[in-house]
Each structure stands twice: as structure tokens, then as C-alpha cells.
Amino acid sequence: MPDAVTKRAGTGELSPASPVDWWALFADPDFLKSPYKELKRIRDLAPVHYDAVSGVYFALSHDVFRRLAMAPEMGRDTRLWTAGWNSPRNRDEDPLSYELFSAFQPQMTNANPPDHRRMRDVYEKAFRQTDLEAYMPMIEAECGRLINGLPTDAPVDFMEAVANPLARSIARIVFQVPPEMEEQVAEWVAALSLIGNIMMSPAEKQNALTALRAFKAYLRERIASGIDRPGEGFVGLALAAFADRTMDEEESLNNLVTLMAGGTAIATLVGNGLLTLIRHPAQFEKLRSDRSLLRPAIEEMLRFEPGGSFIIRVAIRDFQCGGILISAGSLAVGLVAATSRDPECFADPDVFDIARQPNPHMVFGVGPHICIGKALVRMTAGAAFTALMNRFGRIELAGEPVWWTHRSDQHGLHSLPLRLGNGT
Ligand code: HEM
């Protein structure tokens, strides 16, 4: 069947072409609202799919993606993706994408060894749980401020009232964004967050580029103002690393932008997590009566309804995986919602079990690039769910939640209407 087989240039190996129309799938609102059933069907066909249209590989099996993501042959430098936005080949074909992704390229997220470690070491120490504890009183106070004031006599949209403001507060508390800049930083972050959306429009790319330039100009000014002391706080760490030449200016600025933008993902975790608890009342009750389950419950919320859809790698060299050859210069995408429900790894994967142990989901990624903010996320989500359960004995849906259907890289809620009450 010649149509189903694609000859990979330069390797002589054959990769069977996926029968799935991936790009139609990523635009399908029903899939974006709940991708699990369809991903199960596709994973049952094969653990890795090669999309002959785009040349992208999609990994759905937990084991295969884990091996692929950790392999030294697979990196994160998007300049090596031969068909990619900021590959030299794209400079003339799509100058806007080339400029946007080139301007945002120099940072740890997009770096291969040894540059990745050089940059990650600058921040890693500040993200240890013991160091983050210092922010906890402020994070808890913020959760209390947002949650304790919610009305009990009228429905409330949890995303608008709690989840989204909480994500913004993290930028203020952890990265010391001054109150007068909060709104502006949130706007830049919103424009930049679309960068993960592989179906981003030219207008969105132009917006993101404008936001990136303005964000960097603000950080450059802030650094010059001397407010931040070298080595203290996240901006101070970047400053010290710039001063001692561990990182150059572009790397320092792009890393800070990504860190400040990372907080927004907290909104999807608390929103998706709360909806999942409400839809599983016995599990919610179990958590209320045994708060020691909060930590595994948050892991299960992450696994069951993950906010991020894709984890990417770019092949530095050819790599054989899951019966397929991933050729050098190709993009491989791990589909988080598929790996998180893989029955080879999770017993009864479609069951939401807050006591699930072990729970080796890869929602924060895996290997050297694993999310640097994961301890902060777990602590913040813990504070938010604790405040909610302390304040309200009754948390119910007041209408249909609305999922985002405008982007495939994030699975989050536009609105979550709730009715809250004191009693049980
Ligand atoms: C629920 C919330 C979050 C989720 C699900 C999440 C998920 C992820 C994932 C999947 C990766 C890529 C890992 C890989 O390639 O193997 C990542 C990397 C990263 N995340 Fe997060 N993240 C979250 C919150 C945050 C926060 C709050 C911050 C910062 C304050 C942050 C900063 C970063 C950075 C800087 C990287 C790149 C690390 C590297 O390349 O070494 N993330 N995250």
C-alpha cells in the first residue's frame, strides 16, 4: 500500500503514514473539549504516528514518549527542526514566524546541552520547595482573599473570580511585578502564551512579537533601575548571571519572560481540577474528610484532566522508537492526554482516584526539561483547594462549564459557573 508508507529522506527507513487527519482533529471543538476517547482509539492503532502531511511524529504511549523525551538524540532546540518556524529554511518563506521564534529562541526551554544546564542551574536553586516556602504565607493569603469573599447568594464564575486572578497574583508575589504593571504584564503574557498553539494565526504572531519586544524592554529598564539586587529573587538571579556572564542579555530576558508567563498554567490546574472533583462527588467527599490525600489528589487532577496538551522534542540525530524511525531534524510531539491515560501504565486510566499510587504522569514533562515550576504549582494548588474546602461545605455547578475550543495546545476552561454554600 504505497500511499500509506512514506520514504524518509536520507535514512532509507520507512515510516508508516498515520491514517489520522491530525490538523482536522486539533481544530475539532468536540476533541478539544474531551480528547480522551479519540486518543485511546488512535493509541490502540499505534504508539507513535507519523503525519506525512507535516512530517511531525505524535507519541501517545507513556513508555514510548518517556524514552523518546529522555533520549540524548532528542533535544529541544527548535532551530534544528528543518520545517520549523525559526529554521534557516523558513527565514524567507515566513519571515514573521522566523522573527518571532528567533527572538524568543535563546532560553533554557529551547536549549540543548550544554547550554540548557548552564541556564537551568541559574534558576533551579530558587525553585526548590524549601526556598519556595518563603512565598507560602503570601500565596495562602491571596487564596484566602480571592476565595473567602466569594458570594453564597448568587452564582459565581470560578475562572474569572479565582483561577485567573490567582495565576496573575503569582507573577506579583513570586516575580515582584509591581501592582501598576500587573495588568500590562498579564496582557503581554496572554499574547505570548499563544506561542504554544501550533495553529497560531499571523495576527496572533504579530501580537506576540509586539508583546515580546515590550516585555523585554520593560525588563531591561527594570534591571537598569537597580530595584533588584543581584542574586536575590528571580530577577536578581538573572541579573547576577548576566553580570558574571553565565547568560547573555537575550537569554536572561527570555528566561525571565518564560518564567513570569509560566504562572498562567496554574489557572488550568485549579479550574480543571475543581471541575473534576465536582464531577466525582465521592472522591471530593473523600478528600474533604482526609486532607492528607490532598497531595496525591492534585497529582490525579493533573493526570486526569491535564491543562497542557503537547510536549515537544526535536531530533538531533535519527532515533528509533516505538517501531518508527524519527529522522534527524523532525519534530516529535508527546500527547499528554494520551500518555496520562495509557492502560499500560495506569490501572483503570479513566477512573479518577485521588489516592492513586503510584502516579507517574508526565504532565510536567520528563527528563532534563521537566517543569522547573512544578513545586510552586503543587504548593499553590494545595493552598487554593485547602482555602476552598475550609470556606465552603457545598460547591456545585451552577451551569455548564465552557471549555476553550480556540487552541489545541492548552485544555482549559473559559468559565466554570459555581453555586457555593456553607453547609454540606
Ligand atoms: C500546572 C502548571 C504547569 C504545567 C502543567 C507545566 C508543564 C510544563 C511542561 C510539560 C514542561 C516541558 C517539560 C519537558 O519538555 O519535558 C514545562 C517546562 C517548563 N516550565 Fe512548566 N508547567 C506549569 C507551570 C509552570 C510555572 C508556574 C512555571 C514558572 C513559574 C513554569 C516554568 C517552566 C519552565 C521555565 C520550563 C522549561 C524548563 C526547561 O526547559 O528546563 N511552569 N512545564
UniProtKB/TrEMBL annotation:
Any one GO molecular function term: oxidoreductase activity, acting on paired donors, with incorporation or reduction of molecular oxygen
Domain of life of the source: Bacteria
UniProt signal peptide: none
Pfam families noted in UniProt: p450
Keyword hit for rRNA processing: no
Keywords for the protein's UniProt record, in alphabetical order: Heme, Iron, Metal-binding, Monooxygenase, Oxidoreductase
Reported cofactor(s): heme
Protein family: Belongs to the cytochrome P450 family.
Protein name per UniProt: Cytochrome P450
Lineage: Bacteria, Pseudomonadati, Pseudomonadota, Alphaproteobacteria, Hyphomicrobiales
